[in-house]
Amino acid sequence: MVMAAQLGAVIRDPEFVQFHPTAIDIGRDPAPLATEALRGDGAVLIDRNGHRFMPDVHEHAELAPRDVVARAVHAQNLSGAGAYLDAREAVGAQFPDHFPAVFKACMSGGIDPRTNPIPVAPAAHYHMGGVETDLDGFTGVPGLWAVGECASTGVHGANRLASNSLLEGLVFGHRAAQAIHRAPTRQVQAQAADAPCELPQSVLQTLRSAVSAQAGVTRSAEGLTTLLSLLDALEAEHGSAPALIAARFLTQGALVREESRGGHCRTDFPQRAEPGRHTRLTLSDLYPAHAKLRKPEPPEMIPALPRHLIHALITRALEEDLGGRGDVTSLATIPADKNANFVIKSRANGVLAGQQPPTPVLIRSIAISPSPGASVMAIFLKRAI
Ligand SMILES: Cc1cc2nc3c(=O)[nH]c(=O)nc-3n(C[C@H](O)[C@H](O)[C@H](O)COP(=O)(O)OP(=O)(O)OC[C@H]3O[C@@H](n4cnc5c(N)ncnc54)[C@H](O)[C@@H]3O)c2cc1C
User: Fold this and answer.
1) Nearest CA to ligand 1 atom 50
2) Higher pLDDT, 102 or 289
3) 83 band by pLDDT with thresholds 50, 70 and 90
4) How many CB atoms lie within 10 A of CB 37?
5) Using a 6 Å CB cutoff, which residues line ligand 1?
6) HSE (side-chain half, CA atoms, 13 Å) at 254
7) Residue 225: its pLDDT value, please?
8) Active site (catalytic) residues
9) At what angle do helices 221-238 and 242-256 cross, to 10 degrees?
10) Which CATH number is correct for 201-285, 3.40.30.10, 1.20.58.100, 2.60.120.1060, 1.20.1740.10?
């Protein structure tokens, strides 16, 4: 992201960071994650006295959106009440079989999740913001495309639906490759560049702690201003290391966005401000000495689709998933000879993956499904209606 900014690219919405609500808090860095499937399976979030706190926060309790659960877990930890994921009843003895990776991580930290609640804390998980691109990954800077988590393509908004980074990699990777292939080739003169200055480990650690505290799950003008002063001091001492520049983009974006939206929560501006707008920052907005860089024009945004096209798209997506050919993502990522048994559990009628799908999706699923697996799904969905 910083390399692109140094070439003049716009960094869009750098303040939008998603936090995973339940990293296992056993002092490891990076913290291992307790998968959200545990909450889907019925594990509950409790404080150190065993009180289940999510029903007081959101009607969907533990199945509330990621940012809501992350903020609640954060608030519990800040207040000293503690946050624990309790899977003793919902998963219990089946933990090692059903969640082997999480089981191993817990045991390595001395916690047996079959008999003890797991201490949890939110952890930085995904950066929705990043290098502004059009739908082909083009940044507006001649010769520069950005794909993956570093890009801000516009598909995630202020939050991200789980697993949508696969979309970034596959779909936008493909589109960018095609665009690069179509682009005229240019002769470029290679130039030696100075290696970016590195921060000593201890300083990097100071920076990470400060960013987590002041620009993490919750933010305020006071905390963000304090953070900017720290960034000034660290830059004066260590030079403009990429980590400091990245932190400055995030902090500046969070400061100018005086509202709460998706993953960005300002305690001093708890409401959403309408209309929504993008933050667009370049290096010259942060460092006037770079003022010679020209800000690229914003790319053409995805226009709002008319209703009939949305319905056609839902039908196409469901035909792909349920229509007998198989789901392209599964076909692309799971070897054909891999077989496994699994159980799909719904916590309530009409709930899929913790959410209630919109009615048009349900109705079309039933209309489409000829395959055996799909009919089971259709029966389930029929019941749901
Ligand atoms: C714990 C965890 C679980 C996740 N689970 C899911 C999930 O279930 N589903 C999902 O869709 N997404 C998930 N995500 C998000 C997803 O993993 C990432 O968004 C995705 O891997 C990003 O891929 P990328 O190639 O864009 O970036 P990266 O994988 O970060 O690759 C960037 C590469 O660039 C290299 N690099 C950096 N700087 C330089 C430099 N200056 N010079 C040269 N190389 C450099 C890095 O070393 C790295 O190899 C998860 C993320 C985390 C942290």
Assistant:
1) 125
2) 102
3) very high
4) 14
5) 33, 125-126, 148-150, 163-166, 169
6) 33
7) 97
8) 66
9) 160
10) 1.20.58.100
Contact predicate 253/14, CB 8 Å: yes
Q: How far is the CA of 367 from the centre of ligand 1 (A)?
A: 38
What pairs with residue 145 in β-bridges?
Answer: 138
Q: Is the model's pLDDT at 373 over the cut of 60?
A: no
* In the chain, where the domains are located: 2-15+128-182, 17-126, 201-285, 307-384
Q: Does domain 17-126 have CATH number 3.90.700.10?
A: yes
Q: 210 near 64, Cβ under 8 Å?
A: no
pTM of the model: 0.84
Ligand 1 centroid to residue 287 C-alpha, Å? 28
- Mean pLDDT of all residues belonging to the chain: 87
167 contacts 155 by C-beta, under 8 angstroms = yes
Residue type, 330: S
* Sequence-distant contacts of 74-80: CB under 8 A, at least 24 apart: 74/19, 74/121, 74/122, 74/216, 74/217, 74/218, 76/45, 76/47, 77/25, 77/121
* Distance set, CA 247 to CA 16, 67, 206, 210 (Å): 13, 21, 12, 10
Q: Name the phi and psi angles at 102, rounded to 5.
A: -65, -40
Q: Which two tokens stand for residue 314?
A: 């839902």
Q: How far apart are CA 26 and CA 289, in angstroms?
A: 43
Cα(31) to centroid(ligand 1), Å = 16
